[in-house]
User: What shape does this take?
Amino acid sequence: MATHSDTHHEEFHYHAPGLQHQFEDMKQQEESVSIGMWAFLVQEIMFFGGLFTAYLVFRSRFPLAFAEASNHLNAFWGGLNTLVLIVSSLTMALAVFYAQKGNRNMQVIMIVLTMIFGTAFLGVKAIEYTDKYNTGLIPVTGWNKKVKESDVQHAGEPAKGSEGAFVLPLIETKAEASAAADDHEKPYINPNGEFQWNSGRHVFDYAIEKEKSGKAYLTAAERVGYFSNGEFDPNKYRDKIRIFYFIYFVMTGLHALHMVVGLGLMSWLLWAAFRGSFSGEYFAPVEMSGLYWHFVDIVWIFLFPLLYLLGRHFLAGGAH
Amino acid sequence: MQNVDAINSGIPAIPKDNYLTNGFSLKSWLLTKDHKRIAIMYLITISMFFMAGGLYASAIRLELLTPETDLLTSATYNKVFTQHGILMIFFFLIPSIPAVLGNFLLPIMIGAKDLALPRINLLSLYIYWIGGALTVFALLQGGVDTGWTFYTPYSTTFSNSYVMAVGLGIFINGFSSILTGLNFIVTVHTMRAPGMTWFRLPLFVWAQYATSLVMILGTPVIAITVLLLAIERTVGVGIFDPAIGGDPILFQHLFWFYSHPAVYIMILPGMGVISELISNFSRKKIFGYEFIAFSSIAIAVFGFLVWGHHMFVSGQSIYAGMVFSFLTMVVAVPSAIKMFNWTATLYKGSISYDTPMLYAIGFMGLFLIGGLTGLFLGAIGLTVHLTDTYFVVAHFHYVMVGGQVIAYLGGIHYWWPKMTGRMYSEFWGKISAMLVFIGFNLTFFPQFIVGYQGMPRRYASYPAEFQVLNIFSTAGASVLGVGLVMPVIYLGASLINGKPAGDNPWMLPGLEWRTSSPPPTENFEKTPVVTWEAYEFGEESGLDLDGARRRDQVSTVV
Amino acid sequence: MSDKHMETGEGHIGYPGYIGVFTILVVGTIFTYFSSFWDLDSIFPGANTLLALAIAFTKMTFVMLFFMHVYWSPRLIWLSAVASFFWLAIMFAYTMQDYFTRGLGVFSV
Ligand SMILES: [Cu+2]
Assistant: This one.
């Protein structure tokens, strides 16, 4: 019976390209696809929401260690990546714009540009990850660069073994420069590839300074979490910094994974657009991929300040 | 749409062209986009998971026949109850009504040719299969012993069982549930037939819609939580590890943010089925349609505000506990509204006690007990005594089995003639419905008592004083088991020698009864135009139901 | 669905509009980068956080309204966007009410 009615359908009605059998017309299909995509984005928001909740909980429990750790991320690269993503969002929006206009060439160009900027984002991310690898900031034991004591020639000079590796200049502020020079900074020796924290406790010191003026700066969790027997315990402090880096890697990692999926989507879109599959009447796939791409952009718009920027003023303000 | 005369003619025959005869090859099933075929494949898979979970349940009940640890070792027992929980919750209860009955009926009930996104629907089935296969594989390898809740830090640090693989299976399976929910939401919004306004939707559809909301908003959170757990277990560091300042209670927050609403994924569809059954088998327009519809939505929304009632004794702040306790009392209100409306519908209805109706009446009693004992557990003071006792076990089985499983069985019986075109044996149906009801109560009511007396859950042994009630419980489980196996037999037999059901065997006005049984691939020959309200038993429905009923009686006598 | 929908051809802000939104996003990014170095704790503690989040929300709003065409979309799309943030807020608020009230008052350990 289905085949019977189907053939009649084909014969007597104009069958728009891309219209699927369960829909009456293009409008119904577009509405369905669009609502479906938004429902998918809602679930994506909740998916990342679990991570943001974890971030919120630990940031509010250990704000100092988080600021300490966050200050060590390279905000310049983070900011650059934000700009890269914003450009890619613009080109994506324009790809939809041109698809709507039925302009195939501009559409293809915009999709290619989007892919280039998306790849650039992942490239910068890779540079950042490499830097974390080189400096012992990957929270997983054994996943960092392994440097034996004998590999290091002199303290204070660049290690020989790292010639080939790309190390970012991490010093951005005066305070960090002075911190790098003072005795908190140790040469990178890491025979087992463990998580290390060699960059001192400047934010903590800043807070202790403030506490002296009568303000309660440390949270209840911090009063327990940073001290052993009433003494500051650098290992416990490092553990909290490690939690930050764990969250950092999970959040940016999942975000990067979404970028990879997005790029896959773009490749398919490029192929389809190149063949001229889309027209002013039928461009829903471009539009839906665009929604996904912008969503991934929005996630980063929040990740950037939360992971890279919050707590930066602790260093900028204080000359101590 | 079948014309009215054909429906009322009283000469049932199975139409030649229906969704079952549209291709017989394996490919025509595995690559189908037909929601009905997908539903049937779900039905078969889910039934297998239900049986597997049931086997674990019987192992538990046999072990608990005696106070000593004799049949199973403690370690095995831990795995057995964990696997029972995981299979039953993630692979049976959550997909049961939405993926089988919802998939089959939701498009038909709103007069659509299919779900809005049929390929996504097929994808959700495949994801379910992959997640299920992975889980079963892990269970065969040795299983998990963490309890279905995977509480940290035991699951991340100490358990030596296959937490990762099972976690991954549940993670994958979650997306099947998300996609089903997504599909339903889109379908209800865009695929309704002309004239099928929101307030003409059957309440089953409203319930599915509310369930879908919970699926979309909650399931991703459990996905990310299980993912975090898996990462933490693999790499040996994470946010749930108290040794480095992580917080195991955060796991419970994230877990229950989904898993309390998941309770509503498991009961809302059941409530939807019951609304259908109560109204249709009382042959009376449902009382307070809008109240039942909106109470489904209210449950979906308020269900997200109460998760902390699972954490009263876990180290959560007492103040948070008080808030959660209060909200738990509030969320009982919409469920109560439904109960009152169903009761009011029965009042002065012309009730026919067919098998589905027996299940529906059983549901009302069991859900009432399950719901009210939930209030005991939601009360922050009393719960300290009851937490982790058999009282909790009895409570959630009254809701999950007494609620969802009973509703599922009722729904399967009710729509069986529509799904297969054949009538099952009403005699055996009634017997089995009664065995399920008696067996269920005999199994779980004693557990309220032993729980209240302090018998803790999740132990293979128990003090000898609890043995008598445990023997009752195991005996009841045997009766329940027989009651649950019987439908497999007589429903299976009906496929071969069942009487052709005809398009409308129950003489009902719903849209699903206005197409042939089994329905054609595109559900209706012409897109139906709806001119009647939901549960309209009078002339307005366009069906001469009274006349048809008289003729039906004549034809059965002849 | 809304009569302002895509197919009427006015479902976007046109080329100059896109560039305008893009400029706002870039300015927002640069501003949030530099403002994060100012010590605003003297105004009130957490002012830096508030500012950074306010900028992020603004940027998000522009992306959603214009790049994602929510501005021209039917009510249901608006609703789903708002609802997802509402549910996030539920998750944040009800989790944090636990962490913020642990060990307070008569229950302090
Ligand atoms: Cu609950």
Notes: The two ends of chain B are 28 Å apart (CA to CA). Residues B 260, 263, 309-310 surround copper (II) ion (CB under 6 Å).
